[in-house]
Amino acid sequence: MADESLHERVAALEERVSRLESEAPDSPRNEVFWALEGLRRRITGHGQVLFTGAVELPTGQRYEWQQGATTDGLLDADWSEHAAPYAALGHPVRLTLLRAVLGGTRSAAELQETAGLNTTGQLYHHLKQLTAAGWLQAEGRGHYQVPAGRVVPLLVLLSAVVPPGNPTTGE
Predict the structure, then answer these.
(1) Which of 20, 66, 110, 149 makes a 20 to 30 Å CA pair with 138?
(2) DSSP letters of 36-88?
């Protein structure tokens, strides 16, 4: 009986090695979908989504992030509960402010000039929307930053709306 168990274990290992060898890293499919191949090995239920990134900003700050969710959990969630963070991004001035902050512009005075706003009231209206939604946080008097846990998600959202083949996507 021990020989039969050993035989089954060796056969199972040979099958696993064969599958791994057939998924060679230099195959065209794995070259294009290398991240997806890793996710497939971990999928549970009806599927999962994953976003990840390793980012170095013009300021020299580095961020690495990954986040995933099950398809079932996402489809069962109340999407309307998450409208505010999307709504905060729905204005060109706010997107300009976020890009400027990621680029190193941090002070309110510089942000006002960068966004071309005439009054501080206009600036603080937009900053309030972004901070309330968690896209910005105050880092001292009149200075702002994108929280570390929001840098890659923000760039993922931007990349999701840039058409494939656009030079900004790197594809």
Answers:
(1) 66
(2) HHHHHTT--TT-EEEEEEEEE-TTS-EEEEEEEEEHHHHHHS-GGGGHHHHHH
